[in-house]
From TrEMBL:
Histidine kinase domain span: 806-1018
Protein topology in the membrane: Multi-pass membrane protein
Localization in the cell: Membrane
GO molecular function: histidine phosphotransfer kinase activity; phosphorelay sensor kinase activity; transmembrane transporter activity
The name this protein goes by in its record: histidine kinase
Similarity comment text for this entry: Belongs to the sodium:solute symporter (SSF) (TC 2.A.21) family.
EC top class, as a word: transferase
Keyword Transmembrane helix annotated: yes
TM regions (residue ranges): 6-24, 40-63, 69-87, 115-134, 163-180, 192-219, 245-263, 284-309, 329-359, 380-404, 416-437, 444-465, 471-489, 496-516
GO cellular component: plasma membrane
Response regulatory domain boundaries: 1043-1159
Enzyme nomenclature, EC number: 2.7.13.3
Keywords annotated in UniProt: Kinase, Membrane, Phosphoprotein, Transferase, Transmembrane, Transmembrane helix
Organism: Pararhizobium antarcticum
Length: 1167
């Protein structure tokens, strides 16, 4: 046996854990991702339905009556599968009306009648008392069997501890702390729900654990257990027990009613629901949970009968089995599971009942007293309301404890649970009848529930207080009613079936007769329209009527019940959604009064909210008749406008449907259902748009592929689309528009005939086009042949260009080697006779290099390989580099090159623009025998104009177009300078790639002016004055002692590079691969001053080799990348790593200029 202290400590620790989880939920609950965690938590919270009755009582019932225990789970499973639309409808109505409890819901249907609300609250309270006592009995009985006491406490004498009382008080504290944090009962209790979800997991795991132990450890698997069970007469008797059909029906019906009408179930299912996705998830997970927790009920019951030979309380087999095997830990786990099942029910039931008691019993009395006394009532009610609920929680739990002590608790747990179910079922006619019958009213609801509840109390509740022998009930009451008992098909021996059936029959008869004896009042008619006709309320419908009450009066009244912060937040939301600004001193209209009534209803219930407004209106208006007239006027106006709106919508030829922010249907007309041919079930509030589309798919109107596209079309607002039904037999034009509350309004127009007329017209046009096509066939054929010839020519041209681009790389490699060798030989020959010959070879190689470079550029431009990479470019920096490059060339020809400074920043590709300007400057220098070349920038509005002017030979106006063609040269130019005639062709292509137009002005013998126009980047303009860069560094600077590392996988190129650099005085180290580069430092090489690397290596790239060398020595080693690959990707990679790039074949002068600049910078740094 476990000691009482261990059991008490375990229970106390578990309750503390609940506190911790609930606190965490209150702090972090709203951050749980709605798309993932929250729907699962919501589904698990519904498992509060599984109390200690399920945990302990189900086993006890199975041990006695076999599979009868499944009856109370079939009803909920049916409700959450087949009856899910009913639950969805109840949730939608509760959200729209801001209803906080099942009493509030039923009362709202019957004109917010306070009498209806009070009766529902009393039924819920009295029906819950045996249920709470059931949980306390389960806890005390489980402790009793573990410590072998009477079950009334732990210990004896002075050390006696009343565990049920302690549990009652602790659960009351928990419910008060986490269930009464807000006066607004529509506020979600995140901490409480998270704790309940955790308890659902705990009890499921505990039940599965004991089930696995029983089947696979206590017995050798299911086969062994079943074989032994069939050999036991008690087991066979339980398994062969025949539950009458009428009892099955009653169990299923009562449990189906209970899953939605039990106060705790209504609270977690309706009030705590946030999205339609949560309900869809619950429709799958909750039935699966019910199946999972009942899988081992029958095996545990069979094992209990076999182990204990049918002796002892079968309800406690769950505990007695591990206890008999002296498995203390497993026993404690089982106890915690049952304890969790009991506490979860008690907590949520007490919170839900406290809301009903405060809103529907205490507050109406409290408010009527104020109405009678005509007090101003300016005191804050929010704190009073919370205290009433806290007191109600404590009172409810103490009533349950009192029933536990006073009543005879020898009956099974299942009997007590069914007693509560039968009580709750008395609300079913009023609830479900109110959703179906428009003429039902408050008189019928009150009569039905009152008489039905009295029958239940006399036949079931009172006998439960008198001991297990209920024979006097059967003999007196049922004997007196024996003529009526025959309708139960011999069920007179079953008090539950008889009493439940009789009470529901009396309830329904009284409900119908009471409703027929009086016409519905205006507000009852209005609410019937909301609950049955499923019309959405429109506050603007009765905005015109003003009252004597001001906006400030309403705000002050509501703040007393909800608090100042909640009131301000709610009215701000109302102003934003309605597009109105509320002046505190202005008179409130009916729309604002209706909004205030709903807002108050979220805190104190719809019935009490109406009484509060009556009190306020009576204080402002002199007579109570004025008060009633104002409220009824609002109701009548709303009803009238709703009827007018529905009539107008019904007469329209277009279909109209309105969906809320969750894409659930809230308003529609008859034409909408006719056009889409929707069934009656689709015409109800809350029906999802996705389900409507699914109906069309299932019926074959649209395909599976069209289904997803159709959902996207509905959500693409302000864009009409066509809906083709039945393969085009009917074509509907659908238009969608946004609503202020994030919903959508859709219209549907049958355009089948219009489309057919369009098709006929199209066919006529096609016939006409055919005749025209026949007459012009020859012309078309000729045009096609011309187009094909042109396409073939263009393809041939593109093929040629691609060939040049592909062959260029292979040609440039040996050419680069030859150029290196020739340059080296020129320097080594000095003044010998062969120097002139070698210089001619070098000059020829340079010409070949220039031709290949130009051809490659043209091929890349024509094939679109050059993609501009636009960025902000300071023009002054770019022009300074061009001046540095061409100043020595100009001086060599006796010309003066002038580049004017500028501060403009343009949007362009710096590399392509530089190439373009370089070609223009190069041409200007080449064809200017004497004088100067000027480069400058003008600003024209938002454009920058780069101008290149020279005093050269000029171009005749008739040749302006010719000079931009490939290999086109003028006679004067041929005589003046050598060239290929490709420079301006490249300029023209680059200008088109960059969208920078080039303009030409010139006269023969008068010089030439080229203009390039490009956009200014205003967002990057910088202030200040442009400065000139220092003059170009002479390439004749000595390079003695400069340590250069050369990397190339071509031995000839590597050798040529070494010869050239040695001739310049450099100290050269070579590497032929990436692997060799990685080991330089290991083999003792010192840090190089510069790196010259080819891009394409056998085992990597030159950029990777440079990076490896920098890692070994110094990240700041200057590097030059030489490559025949002219792609922008390679250039961008080099720029990213701070590497200078020169294309093959490398010009020795350019390479030497780079090395000389580096050498001078190193010497300057050393000084």
């Amino acid at each position: 046996m476990l000691s009482g202290s261990i059991i008490f400590a375990s229970a106390f620790a578990y309750l503390l854990l609940l506190f911790a989880v609930a606190s965490f939920g209150d702090r972090k609950g709203r951050k749980i991702p709605v798309a993932r965690g929250r729907p699962v938590v919501y589904a698990l919270s519904l498992a509060i339905y599984c109390t200690s009755w399920t945990y302990f009582g189900g086993v006890g019932l199975a041990a006695e009556r076999g599979l009868e225990f499944t009856g109370i789970y079939i009803g909920p499973i049916l409700m959450f599968t087949l009856g899910l639309p009913v639950i969805r409808r109840i949730i939608t109505l509760a959200k729209a009306e801001k209803l906080t409890s099942v009493a509030d819901f039923i009362a709202a249907r019957y004109g917010k009648n306070p009498g209806v609300a009070a009766i529902v609250a009393l039924i819920s309270l009295i029906g819950a008392i045996p249920y709470i006592a059931l949980q306390l009995k389960a806890v005390s009985s489980s402790v009793a069997v573990m410590v072998d006491t009477s079950g009334y406490g732990i210990g004896s004498g002075e050390n006696f501890v009343d565990l049920p009382l302690l549990v009652t008080l602790f659960l009351a504290c928990f419910a008060i702390v986490f269930g009464t944090r807000h006066t607004d009962a529509t506020e979600h209790q995140d901490g409480l729900i998270l704790a309940i979800a955790m308890e659902s997991v705990v009890k499921l795991l505990a039940f599965v654990t004991i089930g696995v132990y029983v089947v696979f450890f206590l017995f050798d698997g299911p086969q062994d257990l079943w074989t032994k069970a069939l050999a036991n007469q008690d087991v066979v008797s339980a398994l062969t027990y025949e539950t009458p059909v009428h009892r099955w029906i009653m169990l299923i019906a009562l449990s189906a009613f209970a899953i939605i009408m039990l106060p705790r179930q209504f609270h977690v299912t309706v009030v705590e629901n946030r999205t339609a996705n949560e309900l869809r998830t619950a429709g799958i997970l909750f039935p699966l949970y019910l199946v999972a927790i009942n899988i081992f009920v029958l095996p545990v019951a069979l094992a209990g009968i076999l182990t204990f030979s049918g002796s002892g309380d079968a309800d406690l087999y769950m505990l007695r089995l591990p206890l008999s095997a002296d498995l203390s830990v497993l026993t404690l786990i089982t106890f915690i599971g049952g304890f969790s099942a009991a506490t979860a029910m008690v907590i949520v039931a007490s919170v839900a009942l406290s809301i009903m008691i405060s809103n529907d019993i205490v507050m109406p009395v409290f408010l009527r007293r104020k109405l009678m006394s005509r007090t101003s009532g300016q005191e804050n009610i929010a704190g009073t309301l919370l205290n009433i609920r806290r007191t109600a929680i404590l009172g409810v739990l103490l009533l349950g404890y009192g029933y536990y002590r006073a009543a005879d608790m020898s009956a099974g747990l299942a009997s007590l649970g069914l007693l509560a179910f039968a009580a709750i079922s008395q609300m079913a006619p009023a609830l479900f009848g109110g959703l179906l019958w428009r003429q039902a009213n408050a008189r019928g609801a009150i009569a039905g529930m009152t008489l039905g509840f009295l029958v239940w109390a006399y036949l079931l509740f009172l006998p439960s207080l008198g001991g297990p022998d209920n024979s006097h009930v059967a003999t007196t009451v049922l004997g007196f009613l024996f003529p009526f008992a025959g309708i139960f098909s011999g069920a007179q021996a079953d008090p539950l079936v008889n009493a439940s059936a009789l009470s529901l029959l009396v309830n329904i008869i009284a409900y119908v007769i009471g409703s027929l004896t009086r016409a519905p009042k205006p507000l009852e008619r209005l609410q019937a329209g909301v609950f049955i006709a499923r019309k959405s309320r429109s506050e603007r419908a009765f905005r015109g009527r003003k009252t004597k009450i001001t906006v400030l009066d309403l705000k002050t009244t509501i703040a007393r019940y909800l608090g100042e912060e909640r009131m301000q937040r709610s009215f701000s939301t109302y102003e934003r959604q309605s597009g109105r600004w509320l002046d505190d001193n202005s008179a409130a209209d009916m729309a604002l009064i209706h909004f205030s009534e709903q807002l108050l209803g979220s805190a104190i219930g719809s019935s009490s909210a109406r009484l509060v407004l009556s009190l306020v209106l009576q204080r402002m208006d002199d007579t109570s008749s004025d008060t009633a007239w104002l409220l009824d006027q609002a109701s009548e106006a709303l009803q009238y406008n709703q009827d007018m709106l529905q009539t107008a919508l019904s007469q329209m030829d277009q279909g109209i449907a309105v969906f809320d922010s969750s894409n659930n249907l809230i308003i529609w007309n008859r034409r909408f259902r006719q056009l889409l041919d929707l069934p009656e079930s689709a015409g109800q509030v809350g029906f999802p748009l996705a389900d409507i589309i699914a109906i069309l798919t299932k019926r074959g109107d649209i395909s599976k592929e069209q289904e997803k596209a159709l959902v996207r079309n509905f959500l693409t607002l302000d864009k009409p689309f066509l809906l083709e039904l039945s393969g085009g037999a009917r074509i509907i034009e659908v238009r969608t528009n946004a609503m202020p509350d994030k919903g959508i309004v859709t219209t549907y127009t049958d355009i089948t005939q219009r489309v057919a007329a369009d098709m006929a017209l199209k066919q006529a046009n096609e016939t006409l086009e055919l005749r025209v096509a026949e007459r012009t066939g020859e012309l078309t054929r000729v045009n096609r042949e011309v187009a094909e010839a042109r396409a073939a020519a263009e393809e041939a041209n593109i093929g040629k260009t691609r060939f040049f681009a592909a062959a260029g790389h292979d040609i440039l490699q040996p050419l680069n080697a030859a150029r290196l060798y020739s340059s080296s030989l020129v320097e080594r020959l000095g003044d010998s006779d062969n120097r002139v010959l070698v210089q001619n070879i070098d000059s020829s190689l340079e010409s070949v290099e220039t031709i290949l470079g130009a051809v490659l550029d043209i091929s890349r431009l024509d094939t679109g390989a050059m993609k501009p990479r636009l960025q902000s470019v300071p023009l002054n920096d770019l022009l300074r580099r061009i001046e540095t490059d061409f100043a020595p060339v100009a001086r060599a020809q006796g010309l003066r090159l002038a580049v004017m400074p500028t501060t403009l920043i343009v949007r362009t590709d710096p590399n392509l623009l530089r190439r373009l300007i370089q070609n223009l400057v190069s041409n200007a220098i080449k064809y200017t025998p004497a004088g100067k070349v000027l480069v400058g920038v003008r600003r024209r509005g938002e454009q920058a104009v780069i101008e290149v002017l020279d005093s050269g030979i000029g171009i005749p106006a008739s040749k302006f177009r010719t000079v931009f063609k490939e290999f086109a040269r003028l006679d004067e130019g041929v005589r003046t300078a050598a060239g290929l005639g490709l420079g301006l062709s490249i300029v023209d292509r680059i200008s088109r790639v960059l969208s920078h137009p080039v303009d030409l002005q010139s006269k023969s013998g008068k010089g030439t002016r080229f203009r390039v126009t490009l956009p200014i980047d205003r967002t990057k303009q910088r202030l200040g004055t442009a400065t000139r860069e220092t003059p170009a560094i002479s390439t004749a600077e000595p390079l003695n002692g400069l340590r250069v590392l050369c990397i190339d996988n071509e031995p000839l190129i590597l050798e040529g590079m070494k010869l050239l650099l040695d001739g310049w005085g450099c100290t050269v180290t070579t590497a032929d691969s990436l692997a060799t580069s990685r080991s330089l430092k290991d083999r003792g090489d010192i840090r190089p001053d510069a790196i010259i690397a080819d891009y394409h290596l056998d085992d990597g790239t030159g950029i990777e080799a440079i990076s490896e060398i920098r890692k070994q020595f110094d990240d700041n080693i200057p590097a030059l990348l030489v490559t025949a690959d002219r792609s922008p990707e390679v250039r961008a990679a080099a720029e990213r790593d701070g590497i200078t790039l020169q294309n093959k074949p490398v010009r020795p002068a350019s390479m030497r200029a780079w090395l000389t600049q580096l050498s001078v910078a190193m010497k300057a740094a050393a000084e």
